[in-house]
Amino acid sequence: MQFAFHCGAFELCVDYASGVVSYAGxxxxxxxxxxxxxxxxxxxxxxxxxPGACSAKEAATSFDVYAHYEGFEGSDLCVDTRISAxxxxxxxxxxxxxxxxxxxxxxxxxxxxxxxxEGACTVLPRMQxxxxxxxxxxxxxxxxxxxxxxxxxxxxxxxxxxxYLAVFDTPFDASYDFARGEVLPLWRxxxxxxxxxxxxxxRFFKGDYNxxxxxxxxYVRERGQLVTLKAKxxxxxxxxKLAGCxxxxxxxxxxxxxxxxYYRPDDPAYNDHFVSFDERARQIRALKRRGxxxxxxxFDGWGxxxxxxxxxxxxxxxxxxxxxxxxxxxxxxxxxCGYLFGIHDQYxxxxxxxxxxxMDEARQNLDGSCSHNHIWYGGHYAYLCAMKxxxxxxxxxxxxxxxxxxxDSSYLDVFSLAELDExxxxxxxxxxxxxxxxxxxxxDLLSSRGIIPSSEETLDCILPSxxxxxxxxxxxxxxxxxxxxxxxxxxxxxxxxCVVIPWNGLSGQRGEGxxxxxxxxxxxxxxxxxxxxxxxxxxxxxxxxxxxACAVSARLMYTPMLRHEFxxxxxxxxxxxxxxxxxxxxxxxxxxxxxxxxxx
Length: 600
Prior knowledge:
Blueprint: E1 2-6, E2 10-15, E3 20-25, E4 30-33, E5 37-40, E6 45-47, E7 53-58, E8 62-70, E9 78-86, E10 92-99, E11 106-110, E12 121-124, E13 130-132, E14 140-144, E15 154-159, E16 162-168, E17 174-179, E18 182-187, E19 198-205, H1 209-222, H2 229-235, E20 247-251, E21 253-255, H3 268-271, E22 272-274, H4 277-289, E23 296-300, H5 323-336, E24 340-345, E25 349-351, E26 381-383, H6 386-402, E27 409-412, H7 432-448, E28 452-455, E29 468-469, H8 476-479, E30 485-487, H9 490-495, H10 521-527, H11 540-556, E31 561-566, E32 573-578, E33 583-587, E34 592-595, E35 598-599
Parallel strand pairs: 20-23, 23-24, 24-27, 27-28, 28-29
Antiparallel strand pairs: 1-2, 2-3, 3-4, 5-6, 5-11, 7-8, 8-9, 9-10, 10-19, 11-18, 12-13, 12-15, 13-30, 14-17, 15-16, 16-19, 17-18, 21-22, 25-26, 31-32, 32-33, 33-34, 34-35
């Protein structure tokens, strides 16, 4: 019941009698009390029984330990696991294969257990990223990979003796718990059953959170999933024009349905209002005259009934705002100014009053029902199956082109933020992994037409098909009143040169983007080499601040980020180093910044 392997680089010991897995090597030692369990539907928790059979062997490339489990109380499950140590690298893989579960029987399987992290700093990919110091009271229950709780399918821990990177190597149905400084991997069913093999990868080394980020970047590159902005610009040369562009985000038409949660029965002006396409064109030209030399524009509410209405069939353009002719005039004005013309669009919320609405196209649950809601402006909606969304994207952009409207960019709302969807409709059955494929296909369809693909935030699995996002902020809920939780640019450390991330805040404004109270988002944009938003009515002074920040982002748009550092005990002074040698330093308390030692 005990298996040990020693080589020059590392040592692995798996003891099923005591349930202890220990690892020693360049990034060790680490210890795990192996105690896997299953959570069945309804919340019943059953620990793995003692393994009925265990074995080990040294293969050509790895040392492998196998275990087989049967006899789960009240279930016909059988489970096989393998703990595998790669001989050359010392990487560990924990593999899980569950068989015999019935659809809907299992909620989660917890495997493997958490490495005991006493005294360790924990690196969590919660939104932009955070570093949890030892002793913090932060606890996370059921964080899901590829949502705000984990933009990337990874985490890590660091301490003086060594560090590790953990990767959900089969990420689409992965979750985790975090408490008492320990991260516990969890696996959800796919289309009702655990099904295919699930794998965790652990890579060990000496280093800090920067090294964890760079190790994950290397992992992504190994798999051909690191698609840089340079590569995206080869496919669509318009991407190059994003360099140094501030973002102008504004709207056209608003209609709030009486059954929307935003409806105000005593405020009709709030529920229905618009600004014409021609008025927005006038404002854009005024910005150009005031000295804004480049920009990316994003217009909400251009459809027949305005923002978040009638999707996925928002055409024709808003008649009260000027119709297709007015939208073409706005497009022309934006391009005359040398700006990029972008629009908001939506292919997940499926509005009941959309032309041609058919519940058979909606995402279906395991029990045959279709989830619905009525939060947003358009009122009641179901959720469109992503497999069907591709057809609507193709139709809508063909129709826009026939009207003489071809945006430079389109923002497909929530595709890089909302939970990955499953659909049980037998005519378009879809796993979470397949939903990623179809969301990316929608974005790729835009790229194929020379339209820059954009979406809301930054999920790792969507990123190869995404160029621009709305924002990629910090999780302010974790930072507020929680000592020992520090915001770190983890996502940018991995992907800075792969996506354009704007920050919403002007010079002197504080408290945006989930940052600690008193920190300026504007300074954080500069530190990260990212652009900022510009109001459509900005004056000359504001435009000057915007263009100074965006000049830094233009310089670094294609440049990987290497290292982030806190420079003082209050952590208000921070520095980021880039692959081209650039170093940017900010002081959040003083409101100052410098690039390569020269004050901004």
